[in-house]
Specification:
Elements (H helix, E strand, L loop, with lengths): L21 E12 L2 E12 L3 E5 L6 H6 L11 E9 L2 E2 L7 H7 E4 L10 H11 L5 H14 L3 H4 L12 H13 L5 E5 L7 H14 L4 E5 L3 H7 L2 E6 L2 E7 H6 L4 H7 L5
Parallel strand pairs: 3-8, 3-9, 6-7, 7-8
Antiparallel strand pairs: 1-2, 1-4, 4-5, 9-10
Helix pairs in contact: 3-4, 3-6, 4-6, 6-7
Bound molecules: adenosine-5'-diphosphate and magnesium ion (MG).
Length: 270
């Protein structure tokens, strides 16, 4: 696994980020489903325009943590949250937060590509239309730019009005990422975005993720440690709802501080 690491790259200390460099500040976040605690007192600062991966065994709370960043957990009646999640200095769990606006700033993509059953173009401009944008030129430009951002423009520019369901699954996943990008989000949450894809499409998406950080803060959940090592700048290791270790990716994989991290990354459990 060590071939993935550029060991000459200086280690970044997450404790010394300036306020401007922090996209999300997670402050003593605890999450319950009924009486069961799924996240325990999580504290982490997620750097802006960097790629942060979340790893850990199945059921450790990765998706639950990601869902805290766009308030997806609001949809689950048994879910209760304590603590704060700050973006641009504001707690997104404040009762006055506009959740629809939050979700357009924090896009989310899931494991299985889920384009809407409509044309490629209609998928891309769906969110803007919901926001009331009607101007054709604005919609066209947003669609083209989003497709260019995910390196899909060349492949689909002559198929914009075909059903999105006619694309390959790798293309569909890039389209879904483009659909989120068309809303000009600040943050992209990717929950195991390549688990349902073949190896070639997986590589394409991994390359795309590394490009996306020029414009976006990216959080990617993966159960694939090689993927975390290949794409991310920072890695968080969760176990049983506890954040065991969170640091520079090179550091976490080559010199973990915690024994549990070492056991996990060397394949002794999970
Ligand atoms: N809607 C829910 N209701 C009750 N428990 C849930 C719900 N969603 C997840 N959980 C539980 O929370 C824990 C974390 O789940 P999850 O975040 O999906 O893990 P991961 O993504 O790491 O596999 C698991 O024990 C899971 O069973
Ligand atoms: Mg999950």
């Amino acid at each position: 696994m060590f071939e993935y690491f550029d060991l000459s790259k200086p280690e970044v200390d997450l404790d010394n980020l300036s306020a401007d460099d922090v996209a999300i500040e997670v402050d003593n976040l605890t999450l319950y489903f009924d009486q069961k605690r799924a996240l325990h007192d999580i504290k982490m600062r997620i750097p802006r325009r960097q790629i942060t991966s979340v790893i850990g065994p199945s059921g450790c709370g990765k998706s639950t943590l990601l869902g805290c960043f766009n308030r997806l957990n609001d949809l689950i009646p048994s879910c209760r949250i304590e603590g704060q999640v700050l973006m641009n200095g504001r707690n997104i769990y404040h009762r006055k937060e506009d959740v629809a606006a939050l979700r357009s700033k924090v896009g989310m993509v899931f494991q299985k590509p889920n384009p809407f059953p409509m044309s490629v173009y209609d998928n891309l401009v769906y969110g803007l239309r919901v926001q009331g944008v009607k101007d054709r030129r604005t919609l066209d430009n947003a669609a083209e730019q989003a497709l260019r951002d995910v390196a899909l423009w060349r492949e689909v520019k002559d198929r914009l009005f075909d059903s999105a369901l006619t694309l390959s699954s790798g293309q569909q996943q890039r389209l879904v990422i483009a659909r989120a990008i068309a809303l000009q989000p600040e943050i992209l949450l990717l929950d195991e975005p390549t688990s349902a894809l073949d190896p070639i499409s997986t590589l394409t998406i991994e390359e795309l993720i590394t490009q996306l950080k020029q414009k976006y803060t990216v959080l990617v959940v993966t159960h694939n440690m090689q993927q975390a090592a290949r794409v991310s700048d920072f890695t968080a290791f969760l176990h049983n709802g506890h954040l065991i270790e969170y640091s520079d990716t090179n550091r976490l994989f080559t010199r973990p501080k915690e024994q549990q991290t070492e056991e996990y990354i060397t394949g002794r459990f999970g």
